[in-house]
Design brief:
The chain is an alpha/beta fold and about 475 residues long. The protein is built from 15 helices and 10 strands.
Length: about 475
């Protein structure tokens, strides 16, 4: 999760992008003329077809190529060698882009030396400013104490100790270590891990939290993730150096120390979020208007005839980034009290007759389309667990996978559900496979996959499922 809080250094990236696009087009104007085959430079006829076409072409392809190379992903902990390697990569890719344009128009008789001069001067101007801004910010942080980020460390592992030294000695990185918390006795700690939550409530200026994840319980991880989400700060995880890193978390290196952060799932990029949310609103509106509106009246009568209590059953669940929300169902039990850590079992005497039918056909989950319309859930996604199960499941599932699962909205239905991993957890294999399918869905999301899951869910509703009781 990336957040910006009350600083202006984030403006540097769009300024650099604008400068770079200006440079590649300015030197094209100076050295290249795609319409003049005799190559008279500074032609007054600049803004005709091919020159104008190249301006659009260079702007678009520069933007696309830099995005895929990560040309502008330079952070305070990025090494100078990494910056130089990005310049070399972009030079090679953009050279191919320029010669590809020339190759399309065979009538352009342009000497290779002219094209190379254009590329060399362009990248000399681009590289110079990139390196100047890189070293200027380092000097600004170390000498003038500007552009600083307030951070805290949680834990006392070998890796967090190395980060502690790094933050204190390499001032040019611009990290201001405010406090260290650990349950280890002795040492220069502000307090225990439990004390850190009180500290965060009193100090709202913390920009980044670095957690030694192997020293935390799942509940503590949840609390840090929720705090970061609500207070717009970054949370990063410092693993044991012997741990094999999962591809689902981005690994950055501060000097040689690996630091993990939750990378944005492709499902959550702006375009995919728009597509998925549009589909959610349209589909849930259709269900609520044409099915829920009349079916709820019938079910209200049937449920009330059999047992006392409300039409809806409201229960707490974890949503995206562990945010708690009220999840709705048609009441299928005689009681509305949620018994901690207890799924409904086969032959459960709490289930009413109409409730058994609702659960068998999954119609009890129809009110969750209200949650979809409110934005708490999606039509398709990982199914939300009972709060009491979150900590228990984390003991079986790798923490990194479990955190990643909660990085998207939960769904009314999901891939794990249509594969039969729903309801009561009988063995550890059940929850392991459930998470496995959830992770597969997040990493391979597409609108077609959503439609396939919805169609399979409808088919299962008519067929009935063995674990729907």
């Amino acid at each position: 999760m990336k957040y910006r809080r009350g600083r202006y250094s984030w403006l540097l990236r769009p300024l650099l992008i604008g400068y770079d696009i200006f440079v590649v087009n300015f030197f094209a104007f100076k050295y290249l003329n795609f319409n003049d085959e005799s190559m008279y430079f500074f032609s007054s006829d600049l803004f005709n077809d091919r020159n104008l076409l190249y301006a659009f072409y260079s702007t678009a392809l520069w933007s696309v190529s830099t995005y895929f190379i990560g040309f502008y992903k330079v952070y305070r902990y990025t090494s100078a060698f990494k910056v130089l390697s990005l310049l070399v990569k972009q030079f090679i890719v953009y050279t191919i882009i320029v010669f590809a344009f020339i190759g399309v128009f065979r009538s352009i008789n342009m000497p290779a030396s002219v094209t190379l001069n254009y590329l060399l001067y362009s990248f000399l101007a681009i590289g110079s400013l990139k390196l100047i801004s890189y070293y200027f910010l380092k000097s600004f942080r170390s000498l003038l104490q500007g552009n600083l980020r307030n951070v805290i460390l949680i834990g006392s592992s070998e890796s967090t100790e190395e980060l502690n030294i790094l933050f204190k000695t390499q001032k040019e990185l611009g990290y201001k270590l405010k406090a260290v918390f650990s349950n280890t006795r002795g040492g220069d700690f502000e307090g225990t891990i439990a004390d850190s939550f009180e500290y965060l409530k009193k100090n709202r200026d913390i920009d980044e939290i670095y957690c030694s994840i192997d020293e935390l319980t799942e509940k503590e991880v949840n609390e840090y993730v929720k705090y970061a989400n609500l207070n717009h700060c970054n949370i990063k995880f410092v693993p044991n150096t012997s741990r094999l890193f999962t591809k689902r978390l981005r690994t950055d290196y501060y000097d040689y120390i690996p630091v993990l952060s939750i990378d944005e799932a492709s499902l959550n990029d702006d375009f995919n979020t728009f597509i998925k949310r549009t589909f959610d609103v349209l589909f849930s509106s259709f269900v609520l208007i044409f099915i829920f509106s009349w079916l709820s009246v019938i079910l209200f009568i049937l449920i009330k005839l059999e047992s006392k209590g409300p039409l809806f059953y409201k229960h707490k669940r974890n949503g995206i980034n562990y945010k708690e929300f009220n999840c709705y169902k048609f009441r299928s039990l005689k009681t509305t009290d949620e018994i901690k850590g207890t799924y409904v079992k086969q032959g459960d005497n709490r289930v009413t007759k109409i409730g058994g039918f609702l659960r068998k056909t999954s119609l009890d989950e129809l009110p969750q389309f209200i949650n979809v319309l409110k934005g708490d859930m999606s039509v398709v996604g990982p199914r939300p667990h009972m709060l009491s199960y979150t900590d228990e499941y984390s003991k079986v599932i790798d923490k990194f996978n479990f955190i990643y699962r909660h990085h998207v909205k939960p769904g009314v239905t999901g891939l794990a559900q249509i594969k039969g991993y729903r309801g009561e957890i009988e063995t550890k294999i059940d929850i392991i496979n459930r998470i496995k399918y959830d992770i597969f869905y997040i990493e391979n999301w597409s609108l077609l996959l959503d439609l396939k899951i919805i169609l399979q869910t409808i088919f299962n509703m008519f067929k009935g499922e063995s674990k729907a009781y």
